[in-house]
Amino acid sequence: MMFMKKRKLISMVLAATLALTSLTGCGKKNSSSDDSVLRVGMECAYAPFNWSQETDELANGEKAVPIYGTNMYAYGYDVIVAEKLAKQMGKTLEIHKVEWDSIGMSLDAGDYDVIIAGMGRTKEREASYSFTDPYYYRTNCLVVKKGSGLEGIKGLSELAGKNVTLTTQLGTGWVNLLDQVPDATLGANYETTAECFMAISNGTADVCVIDAPTAESAAMTNDDLAIIYLDDNDKFVGDEEMTNVCIATRKDDTARRDEIQKAMDAIGWNDKAEMDKTMEEAVSLQPAAN
User: Fold this and answer.
1) 3-state secondary structure at position 242
2) 63: Cβ–Cβ under 8 A, 6 or more apart, which residues?
3) Residue 1 within any structural domain of the chain
4) What's the predicted TM-score (pTM) here?
5) What is the tens place of the pLDDT at every residue in 88-113?
6) Is 25 a domain residue?
7) CB of 267 within 8 A of CB of 85?
8) 30-63 burial string, b = 16+ CB within 10 Å, else e?
9) Which domain CATH number covers 93?
10) How far apart are CA 245 and CA 138, in angstroms?
11) Are 134 and 254 found together in one domain?
């Protein structure tokens, strides 16, 4: 009788183990194993590169792309480029929304396979990820508040003696540029660019270091923001890393990186004029909320 009970107990344990294994496998199963899907991670909160909206409607008649696992939609320059690449590669596009401060960790964890998120290719990031050639070239700028007396600034040297407080987005290459602003105080940096611009509007910070497309996008819906385009002879030194915006894959996933680069080359996505035209389109299509 004891032997029968032990056999029954063992059978129950094995059955439970198999059931748990089955459930675990189902939980992990997603499109990561499906090579017909291009899984892309982005903030969906960084207009005009990428943003979120409640419907798929766009002013030009095109459709925004569903955000995986939500009832929201994404669009912007990054989404436009991702759509073009997915089409060229014969894949279905899948957009994953992720916070900027964990965008690399989520890539490493396999939540998606590619980052197309307005990411600058820096030496620090190249140590951890593989990058394509740039899919956009941006200009860095300063954002100040209208009426602050800083709107007429043309170069960094003109900020000497003004004792301004600086801000930018956390985890970006702009953080490394802040110490080039003379006589400045380093203020708080923020997780999103929207928070950076809010800091300028409410006077928490005097100067935000950011890229021109994002600044121009914000100025469309924030009348109290002014953009300073720095003179070529009086700008940041070594900011080229933040002007080269590239697509990233996991460090060892060079095959995928090369596949994407091949698609970029095939559609001729190395023409700066075409990039700028597409960015202008993205800026014009963003919802007022972004």
Assistant:
1) helix
2) 56, 57
3) no
4) 0.84
5) 999 999 999 999 999 999 999 999 99
6) no
7) yes
8) ebeeeeebbbbbbbbbbbbbbbbbeeeeeeeeee
9) 3.40.190.10
10) 7
11) yes
